[in-house]
Design a protein that fits this description.
Helices cover about 65% and strands about 0% of the residues. The chain contains 9 helices and no strands. α2 runs antiparallel to α5 and α6 packs antiparallel against α7.
């Protein structure tokens, strides 16, 4: 009897194998969730990149959306004059009016749109893109000055939120994309990070 009971006791107390079997689905589920998150973040990166790239292309060639046909930068139009000259509130109102249409402002603005758009689309230099994009969004936020209830002429500002508008959302997205290294999935982030001058200068990641 002892000989027959011994195998039964061995097969009935395999706790390690039961433990591994129980945790395998959880590990698989975690890996799947991680992969899904990577795809979601990559999709967000590409969409945000297209926002900046489209703004650059429309302002350059005047596709007839935000920039009318024949009024693009390539046709002699100014990418900054319309927006900055219409600033009607905020602590930098007069400063923005002075900047409106200036050649340096046009070039800086357009190169910023192009650089940020390309960086996000390719998944490279996301930290630089986050810094440049946040600075750009901060200036545009100041130009619209959401905290004001009234414009300089006394009319209603029609501000929908005194603080959190879409400029801050874009800035937060740029920072988040850089923080999580969103250029690895559907991007050139890994290849970019392996470049010698990038590996020596982490701020270029």
């Amino acid at each position: 009897m002892a000989v027959h009971d011994h195998p039964h006791r061995r097969t009935g107390f395999r706790f390690p194998s039961l433990h591994r079997t129980g945790t395998a689905p959880a590990a698989t589920g975690t890996a799947a969730a991680t992969a899904t998150s990577a795809y979601v973040v990559a999709g967000l990166r590409l969409l945000t990149g297209f926002v900046f790239l489209w703004a650059f292309l429309d302002k350059t060639f005047g596709f007839g959306y935000a920039t009318g046909s024949g009024k693009g930068w390539i046709d002699g139009g100014s990418p900054t004059k319309g927006f900055l000259s219409s600033v009607a509130v905020g602590p930098m109102e007069s400063t923005f009016h002075d900047w409106a249409g200036a050649a340096w402002a046009n070039w800086l603005f357009m190169l910023g749109l192009l650089g940020i758009g390309l960086a996000l689309t390719a998944g490279v230099a996301l930290r630089l893109a986050a810094v440049a994009g946040t600075a750009m969004m901060a200036l545009m936020w100041i130009a619209e000055w959401p905290p004001a209830k009234h414009l300089s002429d006394g009319s209603a500002s029609m501000s929908t939120n005194p603080f959190a508008d879409y400029h801050l959302i874009y800035a937060a997205v740029l920072i988040a994309l850089a923080a999580v290294g969103a250029g690895v999935t559907w991007g050139l982030g890994k290849a970019w990070a392996r470049l010698p001058f990038v590996s020596r200068n982490p701020w270029l990641l």
